[in-house]
Design a protein that fits this description.
Number of helices: 13
Strand content: 5-15%
Distance between the termini: 19 Å
Largest sheet: 8 strands, parallel, barrel
Number of strands: 10
Strand order of the largest sheet: 1-2-3-4-5-6-7-8
Structural class: alpha/beta
Order of helices and strands: HEHEHEHEHEHEHEHEHEEHHHH
Helix content: 25-40%
């Protein structure tokens, strides 16, 4: 039985030591990274879209299970309606169920139509949303937990653009299921603050990209170490698909197009924003091209190191934060 030094409904749900979730990172969340998260006492999610061929996804799940040595892990399924058909999504969920995966992280749209399949197989569902109102809806359809990402998050913060500090306290009076807070989370004191406001844990993305176990090029990681929270940019609001990424040539080009043509379509932007362009940055280290998800937790990235070391720093910072409070530490 795992001893959780900060027990919450999150640690109970996933069977982890710490109330921290390593959210799915497109192209980057593979078996090696996710297993490192599991061994460090948290949970991570393989990104199914990174392995579009069923045999490849199945093999990655099996590899992850072996590397986790009995520890928890899950699979992230992005369901962006403009990019992924419901038929393809169902096939992915069927494969996940067939492989006996116990946890999934869903995002992109309402997972209601897939809930009977998942719940029937005993799969626990963490649904990621960009606003409290969507978290309330997700709770009503039976998900086990929600992750609410604020305006500071890397990737897709949605359209409401409410910050994580507000979300953490606001959600407490609206939800009866466990919720996590994400967006700009990269320091243990933020975890303690989120717990104090009612959250059961946090979801972390950008802060973990510099982990040794993430396969991205060393030059890309070096840029993240050098960058700060003001080195991100927002674009694609015109197509209602707002994204926060590392500021570069592509973000400048996309913002120029959107300013000149507010009716631009996502199909017209694809030559600049295709995910394959972003993947190339991870391969080559050339961060000047592509929409490369990065959030305000760039503020806390100061070195490249093993994921276990980053998680240990989180735990140390959590204990320091508790010690500063006029209450007894656990």
């Amino acid at each position: 039985m795992i001893q959780a030094p900060f027990p919450t409904p999150c640690t109970e749900l996933f069977g982890t030591r710490l109330p921290i979730v390593a959210g799915g990172l497109m192209w980057l969340s593979d078996a090696r990274y996710v297993a490192a998260a599991s061994r460090a006492g948290i949970i991570g999610f393989i990104t199914a879209a990174t392995f579009p061929e069923p045999d490849a996804l199945r093999a990655e799940i099996r590899r992850c299970r072996e590397l986790c040595e009995g520890g928890p892990f899950g699979v992230n399924v992005s369901m962006l309606p403009k990019l992924v058909s419901p038929v393809k999504t169902r096939e992915v969920f069927e494969l996940i169920v067939d492989e006996g995966v116990k946890f999934v992280e869903t995002s992109g749209r309402n997972p209601e139509e897939f809930m009977p399949l998942l719940k029937g197989a005993g799969v626990k569902v963490l649904h990621k949303v960009p606003a409290v109102r969507y978290a309330v809806k997700a709770a009503s359809i039976g998900v086990d937990a929600v992750a609410i990402v604020g305006a500071e998050c890397g990737g897709h913060p949605g359209l409401d653009m409410v910050g994580s500090f507000v979300n953490a306290a606001w959600a407490e009076s609206h939800l009866s299921i466990p919720y996590l807070i994400g967006g700009g989370t990269g320091h243990g004191s933020q975890v303690v603050a989120a717990l104090a406001m009612g959250a059961s844990g946090v979801v972390v993305g950008t802060r973990f990209v510099v982990a040794d176990e993430v396969w991205a090029h060393a030059d890309y990681k070096r840029r993240l170490v050098e960058a700060g929270p003001t080195d991100t940019d927002l674009c694609m609001q015109s197509v209602r698909n707002t994204i926060r990424t590392l500021r570069n040539d592509t973000t400048a080009a996309v913002k120029t197009i959107e300013a000149g043509n507010p009716q631009v379509t996502i199909q017209e932007l694809l030559p600049l924003v295709s995910g394959k362009i972003g993947r190339n940055a991870y391969v080559t280290g050339d961060w000047s091209k592509g929409l490369l998800a990065a959030g305000h937790s760039l503020a806390f990235i100061d070195r490249v190191e093993p994921l276990a070391a980053i998680v240990a720093r989180f735990e140390h910072e959590m204990r320091q934060a508790l010690a500063r409070l006029p209450v007894a530490s656990p």
